Amino acid sequence: MAYTQDQHKRNCVTVNHSDGSAITVYEQGAHLTSWSVPTPTGLREVLYLSSTAVYKEGVALRGGVPLIFPQFGNRGPMSPSHGFARVRPWKIESIAEGEATFSLRATLQEMSPEGLVVSDSDRNAVQLYYTITFCKNKLRLGMRIVNMTSDAPLPFHFAFHSYFGVKEISNTIINGLNSTSYINNLTADPKTVVLNPPQEVRIISEEFDRIYKDQPSAIELVDATTSKRIVNIASTTLKDVVVWNPWIEKAKRFADMPDEDYHKFVCVEHGSILQNDVLLPNGEWKAEQEIEL
């Protein structure tokens, strides 16, 4: 199966499952933009995607699951923010029912913006393999990164920047964070790690941007009006968790999102963020995020 152009003339692929669920992934960034699942009343879209997202080369889509690599935000010397993986074209490795794998090769020079000069050979590179498996009640995102070099350890950050759709953010309960220390990104210096003690979190009612360190349990989103679970988000390998919503004023500054859409989503991002992981020469690194309905 190959990529095809959508109405925005951007390459993407839709993968189906016999149970009626489906995903859509864009070539740029291997960006997962849709996970639709059958319900008694029709298809439900689990992920949030902005209706005014910018479909343009080099610009990450607002919503879905952007891949953050090799730098999180401005926590490092690299430009652009969040690294390059989310805006680079990825190759389709394989497609099967309920599963798709994509790959990206990055050179050592790209991984080292300080000016490292190396030859552009297969051995001076990192290879990323991204496998998405899904059905109507579960989505698994798996990343494998291989250091092709024989002598260069590579530090990096990584995160699944997942946007989850909700009916109303002010009626969305967030379970699982009350015992975890965190950094408040609204006040913290990105070059430092200053932890705040655990604080009860139930419903977001203002701009919210925190990194929870060593999160021990899954995060559950619950609709307060029905007491029904929206999603359960977990990872056994990624211990930092970002929870983010821009709220009113910041949402107005986003050209690629309607002003009122802060009501419609919350980001819950598992990652390796607060300290660099180091990929040893000839080594590999694996991580996953699992979402259940």
UniProtKB/TrEMBL annotation:
It catalyses: alpha-D-glucose 6-phosphate = beta-D-glucose 6-phosphate. GO terms for biological process: carbohydrate metabolic process. The keyword Ribonucleoprotein does not apply. The active site is at residues 161, 269. GO terms for molecular function: carbohydrate binding; glucose-6-phosphate 1-epimerase activity. Keywords: Isomerase. One of its GO terms (cellular component) is cytoplasm. The keyword Isomerase applies. Its EC number is 5.1.3.15. Transmembrane segments: none annotated. It holds the Pfam family Aldose_epim. Belongs to the glucose-6-phosphate 1-epimerase family. This is glucose-6-phosphate 1-epimerase. It comes from Angomonas deanei.
